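=== RUN LOG ===
request id: a7f3
mode: sequence -> structure
chains: 1
length: 145
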Amino acid sequence: MIHNYDDNCIFCKIIKGEIPSYTVYEDDDVKAFLDISQGTPGHTLVVPKTHVKDIFDYDADLAATVFAKIPLIARAVKASNPDIKGMNIVNNNGEVAYQSVFHSHIHIVPRYTSNDDFAMIFKDNSKNYDEAAYTKIQDAIKAQF
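=== RESULT ===
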């Protein structure tokens, strides 16, 4: 794979070794390293070695290559600590969706208890939707294929 880099991107600099990282896995296509924030112990980022801003910039080949590595890396993170009881795997796309570095990356966040320092909240808005509202959204999405 030919890699494109953005000289102003912190993750590209990490990939090229210009900024040190705590790398846990690396191959020709991806690099996985500890998130410096460590939301929970073992919080790992998986980044493609080619610069893509977000999920919308992936082509099918890059997506297949990068996302095929996620289970391998997730299993290694889980096996690294017997106290890990679960895991969130998160990909934020766009500032409004909490993306803070605009080089696509997947967070692997080990979960130890329901009280560890990580939260995702999915509000139940189903009372605001009827069949017509669901169908309208469904049809709008389906029309894009």
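=== NOTES ===
Helices lie at 10-15, 60-79, 131-142.
The chain has a mean pLDDT of 96.
=== END ===
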